[in-house]
Amino acid sequence: MYSRYEKAKILKQMEIEGVDKTSEKTGITKQDLYLWKSKAIQFSNILNDEGDTMSRYEMAIRIRDLEKDLKKVESDYTILNTFMEKYNFFEIISKSERYRFIQSQSDKYKVNQLCSVLHVTAPSYYNFINTKE
After folding, report:
1. Tell me: the pLDDT tens digits for 35-53?
2. pTM for this structure?
3. Contact 71/81 with Cβ under 8 angstroms?
4. Which member of 24, 49, 73, 119 has the lowest number of beta carbons within 10 Å of its beta carbon?
5. Distance CA 116, CA 114 (A)
6. pLDDT for position 72
7. DSSP code for 49
8. For residues 66, 67, 72 and 76, what is the CA-based torsion angle, rounded to 10 degrees?
9. Which of 30, 33, 29 is nearest to 6 (CA)?
10. Could you tell me if 10 and 2 are in contact, meaning their C-beta atoms sit under 8 angstroms apart?
């Protein structure tokens, strides 16, 4: 009995070396290898950056990497926010300057996200926009 991880490694090996060689090396029948591959394709239709179907193992690695990236971004955001608050960034940069920045970036980011990062409320931003025009 092979674990999912072991099957994923063997299927990856099969992609590189071919069915015959993998069957010969592992002692797993070609029929079983094809069955594993068809099940992997059935249950895994998520694509990697190259457009190839990812195995569960590859997905698990990708998820782990994304979780690490997310933790780093959250940590960076906390550090930056703490720095800006400590040095009175939000008192130095006027609200109208922040509103103009939000307006200039609103085609790239969600307004609510920009407002949150820049410590202004969305209603106050929209009020600024509406009174400006």
Report:
1. 888 887 766 555 555 656 6
2. 0.47
3. no
4. 49
5. 5
6. 92
7. T
8. 100
9. 33
10. yes
